[in-house]
Amino acid sequence: MNTLAKDVTKDVAIFINDFYPELPPALEKLSQKLGRPLKGVMLVDKTVRERGKYNADKDQVFETIVCDFSDTSMLRSTIKKLEDHILLIDTTSERGQPYFKLVLPHLAYLPAPTESSLEWATHKGQMRAIVGAYNPNLVPKVQVIQDDSEDTIKSILSNLELPCIVKPTGLAASILVNKVTSEDQLRETLRHSFSTIHDVYARDAGRWDPGMIVEEFIDGEMYSIDAYINDTGTVWCLPPIRSKTAHSLGMDGFYTYQNESYLEIDETTITAGQAAAKDAIHALGLRSCAAHIELFHTQTGWKIIELGPRPGGYRQFMYAAAYGIDHAYNELLVKIGLEPEMPTETVGYSLITNTYAEEEGVIADIEGIEEARAIESVKNLWVHAKAGDFALPSGKGGKLIVDSEMSNTSQQQLLADADKLRAIISIKLTAEKPAITD
Amino acid sequence: MEKDIILFVNAIRPTTFAAFSKFKGETGRTFKFIVLVDEKIQESIAICNGQHELPEPIEVISADFDKPESIRRVLKPLESRLFAVTSQYENCLLELQKLIPYLPYMHLPTESSLEWASEKRLMRELLQAHNPSLVPAYLEVTDISDESLDSVERLMQYPVIVKPSGLEGSLLVSLAENRKELGVALKHIFDEIQAGYNLWIKRQRPAVLVEEFMQGDMYSIDSYVAADGTCRHTPPVKVITGRQVGFDDFFGYARLIPAGLSDTEIANAYTAAEGACHALGLRSVTGHVELMHTANGWKIIELGARIGGYRHDLYLRGYGINHIVNDIRNRAGEIPEIPTKLIAHTVVMQIYAPKEGVLTATGGEAAVHKLPSLFAMRQLCKVGDTVAFAKNNGDPVFEVMLSHSSEDQLQHDITAVEKAFSFTVQAQTEVLTPA
Question: What is the pTM of this model?
């Protein structure tokens, strides 16, 4: 065991802003491994708390400390009270990364990412520039834009070949992501995106300043790979997860319609995908963290489209159900310099369904929820909207309405249950409204 | 692959060659030196940091530090061989900061810590948050309005020190005893600060600080801060300012070892220095800490994320400490060697002309050359140059380094130096006569 793991005075784990239910059991497991009690502390930015845009530790499983992260002195004083006891620091959410960046230099003696790597990884424009500088073959051709002026549009048309994908630089979950195949569509999409981007950034706590990128469309199959990186740059890659976008299934929008643990690609292709993920991690200089890499398998190899310095959403469930991997626990292990536990046997199959509104309008009802929850493979199902809420398609800034975590030891049964769930759940809309409301 | 390259950001100190030659003789270990300079300031930094007069040829490569593909291009062939990356000068820290995220698997400081250590306001803010007793009252001032003067007077008592937030070496530092003098000092610094930043190739935003004047004796300590925060300190250096010998200026007139402090005083100074390094989160770097020994204990004047000027020569002569090699080995994760047995009493003196103007003649060099303890003398301002005090962005005319195993001999030679030099400035001849 390394120094941190053995140092009995280090017994505090700091988590920034967002609480996730997998954190307490992961910390308890680490506590058992190290043979000493460990305490979790949520360090929450004052403004984030006031705005309420975070996952609060409502049951107060951990101690919560609130501090104004924009006040360097206050942050320093707050951390000073804890620093002799801090074992690790972790930020699980994408939106928490800018806050993590502010805390990092005050904990200089803990293994942690560099400040710039967090910014690079969570800004789609910078991520592409940095990864492209490392290996131009890893990313599609891209242009970062700040407006929809005539000059900008001319510049895009002269630099890139249509079709292109238009997406925001600092939002997750495919919000405001659109494909354009013509100049007219490009103009219309940019006009709409820039007219709503500030509202959407405010609503979804977008990272950094609002901006958009336009990148050449990649034709291929989408996957994601989660990985762990230690402080010396050693990378452990998990098996890929297949992501089926709505677009790939012939529907509108680029949101992830379904994530699946089972794969139809061979070992050589998987190894090549993991090598591309590793390259992207090293390009961004990530260390002492988990990473979530989204990539396309194309005819000309693997291309990176997103990379977050954090575990991917739903991956705790998916990797546990499919491979028996405790993702959150592994992340804590690499943060204190220990190797993650990587079982390789398949123990089952896991799948995620996401449901968005297909049209714009006010929700009258969301039907079939309880019936869907009763399906054998459905382990968790969440509803994020209610009757009376305004709904938009994902490409226009709309948010997720229903999602579910499903697993089964039978792949066939899992697929049948997923089809059944989609047939049961129905979002009924009544009328349209002109503006986004939170 | 063997880690045999030391990368110097922007510039290399000339004494580095001799320091590593000595290290090679003692250990057999050899390294290849490469200077990596930001191409946007390549020529200006070479002139400013004396890179055209290096004792040995060195490979110099360049990149645009603001373009990722440019940095990647130059680092890629070197990465696997890099033993350490270092910035030996204050005006190279910004470029080191820009390189850090491209070398995440090496021991390097955090990006913010370099910014905090380069800006006195941020430094004081963090020192105060870490331990309020470490710093005097201070305020950043943005203009010379009555409101600004009122704000200063509400927060602190006269006398106060007016200084730039981002320059080293007492440049543009002045003392104000009352409101009128404060107004004059602020006007002067606001008039000159941009020129000072330009001269020293500092690319940060110029800012001005006013802080309460501390009564006490000044010392410095260089601390090797390891990656895990462990601080290994060099012995203290006593600093005598120009003001203490009769100049209206705060330049470092003499830097002396041993510092003449008791073991307890030294231990307390180390504790203060360590607190300062930890307050800024320094790691894998040498912290140059300037401290004031006051009636209320040790206070931090400032802290730089680099070795102190002249410290290699002082420590090598005084204690046999190879400071430049230690700095680099510490950055590479190795433990520096710090012998503490005094070998020789040592001093570095900066000799300014007693007046400002055009230097038309100098005298006394021959007498200084004959002193038994002299080991180096350098003339920085030549006849025909304009000379100015440090508070006006000026350089000393001479640097003199003396070292001797006998304290009495050294004291004798210091006095001889003070008497020997004479300067003619704008047709006036004045003999340097310290108070």
Answer: 0.87
